Amino acid sequence: MFVGFSNYSNSQILKNTDDFLVLEKEILFQFKKDFQRDSLKGFSKKLNEEAQEALNKGLYSVINDSTVCALDKKNYQSFSPYYFKPEEGKGLRKVDGVVNRKVKEFEDKENFNRLMIDLKILSLAYFFYEEEVYAIKAIDLLRCWFLDDKTGMLPHLDYAQMKLGTCQGNPSGVIELRKIAALPDIILLLKSSHSWNQDMELGLREWLHSYLVWLEHSDAGLKLMKYSNNLFNYYYLQRIALASYLHKPEAEIHQMLDEVQAKLLNTQLTENGRMPLEEKRGTPISYMLFNLRVINNFSSIAALYGKRDWFDLNTPIGKRLFKTLERLPNMKGFNETNLFNKKFVKFLKEKYDNCSLEGKHGSFESYINNPSFYFFQL
Question: What distance in Å separates the CA atoms of residue 166 and residue 177, rounded to the nearest whole number?
Answer without folding.
Answer: 21
